[in-house]
Design a protein that fits this description.
alpha/beta
Length: about 200
């Protein structure tokens, strides 16, 4: 990661763990400029690490995020993942509610969100659905990783996350994606593993 760290803008004011996480995102994306867009709520990294330390589940919006998370790290921490986007229940719920599968998947996974790390790397509507659940008092995730990518509602969904009281790690505006979200989870897992080392 030395070359990646050397590519970071000098103006970044980050803790060592935040800097390490940003380096991992930059390496995953191949884009040093993305470092300027990564935002952390106070204590976000510590909250994510603490949650995973106690075996909190990781909930993802799409399979691409889920498969990008290191199976070795998940196994070593006894952490499991959940993704419902491709299930028949979600397809039926989306049709019944007249909404997208991304929204239906987040609603379907609401019973598992308390204390979980929720990683959104694809659909801004999934991120908005999570925030709606939080605002309705139905869920209380330990951390939300908000990194959907694209132009339609993407920047707006992240702005809503940044304005919220939900602990978060976010990439502002249009950048992000499944690889960035997975890299963030992998970094938190690796920090958790290190925290266990005597």
């Amino acid at each position: 990661l030395r070359r990646v760290e050397a590519s970071l803008p000098d103006s970044l004011s980050l803790s060592p763990d935040e800097r390490y996480l940003v380096c991992r995102i930059v390496r995953a994306e191949g884009d040093p400029e993305i470092a300027r867009s990564v935002r952390f709520s106070p204590g976000a990294v510590e909250r994510g690490v603490a949650a995973l330390q106690t075996g909190a589940q990781v909930i993802t919006d799409v399979r691409m995020v889920e498969v990008g998370i290191s199976k070795a790290l998940l196994s070593s921490r006894r952490v499991s993942t959940r993704c419902a986007i491709a299930t028949p229940e979600v397809a039926a719920r989306a049709q019944k509610d007249g909404t997208t599968r991304s929204v239906a998947a987040m609603r379907e996974l609401a019973p598992y969100m308390d204390g979980a790390v929720v990683a959104v790397g694809n659909a801004p509507t999934a991120l908005l659905a999570v925030l709606d659940l939080v605002n309705e008092g139905l869920v209380a995730p330990a951390l939300v990783i908000g990194m959907p990518v694209g132009f339609v509602a993407c920047a707006e969904s992240k702005e809503e996350l940044l304005r919220s009281s939900v602990p978060h790690i976010c990439i502002e505006e249009y950048r992000g994606g499944s690889s960035a979200a997975a890299a963030t989870v992998n970094t938190l897992l690796s920090l958790t593993k290190e925290a266990d080392t005597p």
